[in-house]
Structures are given as C-alpha cells and as structure tokens.
C-alpha cells in the first residue's frame, strides 16, 4: 500500500510532467521540429506551474476536505501562482523581448542573447488549471487512503 502522502506527490509530479510534455508536442507540431528544452522551460501552453499547484489543491480538497486549513493554503498558493504567471512574469517577459530587440540592433552586442520567458497568457493558465484539476481528481480517487 502506498503511503498516505503519495497522492500529493503523484498528482503534482504527473501534472508537471504532462504539462511540460504537452508543451513539447504543441511546440513540435506548430514549428515543425521538436525542441527538447521545452520539456523543462517555463512559458507557453499549458502553464505547468498552475497545473502543478491546482493538482495539489484538488487532491488536498478531495482527501482532506475543502474546509481544511491545508486546502486553504494550497488554494491560495495556486491562485498566487496563476496570477504571477499572467501578470508579473508576463510583464517581465515582455520587457525582456523589448530589451532583446534593442540589443539585436546594437553594434556593441557581442554575446549570445539570452532566452526570454514570456510568462503566460490567460488561456495558457486556464488550460494548466483544467489539466491540474483533472489530474488531481483522477489521482485523489484512484489512490485511496
């Protein structure tokens, strides 16, 4: 029998791995070639951070109850994660794109330009949340106490 906490770890690991795998295949399909770096990079569809935290909050809600303190903590962290993905990280990414455009035109730029992670659009966060919710429900009901 699996330890009581295994559902939490399985849900979060599975949500992260599936979201990153989906990113890879979507990127491969849209650009005609796979980039293995997409398996661990942030940004794009769906949000792996959001999927991970929503999966955890869902498992906690099902197993410990939505009235538990632990559910409140995980739900708040999931909301903060989703908000940060769409607002702070998105804004920083857009600034990174603008800086990169300036550097590309600069005669003084000699080093390779760094990767710019854009953060997430609302649809990417929503897709991550839905994926996390479905994985969390599946794991919570398949792995019982």
Radius of gyration: 18 Å
Our count of helices gives 5
- Reading the helices and strands in chain order gives HHHHH
Unreliable residue stretches: none
User: Terminal Cα separation, in Å?
Assistant: 9 Å
Strand content: under 5%
Number of strands: 0
Sheet of most strands: none
Number of domains: 1
Mean pLDDT: 83
Shape: elongated
Would you tell me the structural class of the helices and strands? mainly alpha
- Roughly what percent helix? 55-70%
List the helices and strands and how they pair.
Layout: H1 6-31, H2 48-64, H3 69-86, H4 88-105, H5 122-142
Helix pairs in contact: 1-2, 1-5, 2-3, 2-5, 3-4
In brief, what are we looking at here?
With 145 residues, the chain is mainly α.
What do these coordinates show?
The chain has one domain. Helices cover 69% and strands 0% of the residues. The protein contains five helices and no strands. It has helices at 6-31, 48-64, 69-86, 88-105, 122-142. Helix 1 crosses helix 5. It is elongated. The relative contact order is 0.20. The mean pLDDT is 83.
